[in-house]
């Protein structure tokens, strides 16, 4: 009895700290949602208006009209989808080489791959800009897509770790049966690695969807803007259109949150996977 | 030359043939593996050369030049580096802000992520719900995140001011004055520790229960179990967190840049290293100068991570040997 009471007291204590923390973590998001449904006069009302009345739903259609939202959406999606496809194909090929083909030099390549993770992006930022400028790619989506078709270090690492857990005997048996490496990669390793590939796809898609500095550096023509650049246009010389801005913020956040809810397990496993080997 | 062996009637001969072929086959297989390995890795080998190695070397070269990105770079020796350390007060402010941010926010992030993960691991109801809630902020695009923070942290009027107004106070000036802007950003960064919470939680769930049971038999209390079982087993996660967050803090860019438009307002208190570097490169077109900053950052990151790696043997516990 005493023991049970102690257990009860303990869990009350834990919830008593977890709930306020949960409140703090959700607050900005709830405030974003709440503001997105408010008329102007309630933005800075005191005491703060938590649940707007009436709901100003018109903020959403207005937000979409105030900037060329759907154009930016199309741009963002195009970049994110093409980059994700590229990163999936290239990273899985490279990871296959590192994990499944015993060749001299693969350890060196692997170390080099890990080393790039330590390199601050600022180091390569300027020369890359110059390269893309000389190729006449600046102010196009190419610098935001093409590099991803040549592999991403973190994803190569992640997939390599995963591929290594697949028994080598499978490959050896297939080789004896006369299968070439491309066939083994395509019909044995990839189908067995769906969870890891899904993780890579989601991580990359979200990274590109959220990307800010890439578009900031390379896109100057408004027609090419992604959502993360376009959203600035709610800030006018008369101040920010907070209601519209928050409505747009909800719109660009929602797809990611939905992805997360549907694929929660993949996410959590993926994050744990990146931390395995330190 | 493919050796066809129909059946195994003559196994002695088959073995003999296989043995005879072994050296040559092995060699050819090794070569084949090398060719295949290189072919499969070729996108990344190209990518490494073009997107990593060449730019890194080019950046090193640019750092010794005056270069506006249009005309050819002119070699100026150490001039950029000398100017950075002797004449550039904005640079020193950026270094200070960045180091401040790293030194204050990383220990706090470790403390809170570890603590929340500990509580989540206590087999309580709603673990998944809590975990989801803590993780959500990391999904919000940085632009949205930064702007909603600016909105919430509007002094005197924003949501954050409400509790202060209840007591008739105006509350701090948050992002609008130099003495508060830095701590406010540290506070905001603590909001995006969801990934780390998940890492710690995964680590905690890996702690073998029999270690706790053994400690219970020895009559260990909660605190000593925490100190002697939980912490040692979690040190690799802390190590990983430390390394990644040092790199992350030194690269802190998007959120303060979006908040202030890169002005460093107020009084350069939000001018972070990456922001100042970006401004030099793309606003002032001082690409050589910015490259020098990039290389200093690189060297600094390298030294700090090396120190952390070196120190690992003193405090990071790997269970590998005892399994």
Automatic annotation (TrEMBL), chain A:
Top-level taxon of origin: Bacteria
Alphabetical keyword list: Cell membrane, Membrane, Transmembrane, Transmembrane helix, Transport
Record-level GO cellular component terms: plasma membrane
Family to which the UniProt record says this protein belongs: Belongs to the binding-protein-dependent transport system permease family.
The keyword Transmembrane appears for this protein: yes
GO biological process, one term: transmembrane transport
Annotated transmembrane regions: 12-33, 77-96, 108-132, 144-163, 184-206, 242-263
Cross-referenced Pfam families: BPD_transp_1
Subcellular location: Cell membrane
Alphabetized PANTHER family for the sequence: ABC TRANSPORTER PERMEASE PROTEIN MG189-RELATED-RELATED (PTHR43744), ABC TRANSPORTER PERMEASE PROTEIN YESQ-RELATED (PTHR43744:SF6)
InterPro entries linked to this entry: MetI-like (IPR000515), MetI-like_sf (IPR035906)
Membrane topology (UniProt): Multi-pass membrane protein
Domain named ABC transmembrane type-1: residues: 73-263
DNA-binding listed as a keyword: no
Name listed for the protein in its UniProt record: Carbohydrate ABC transporter permease
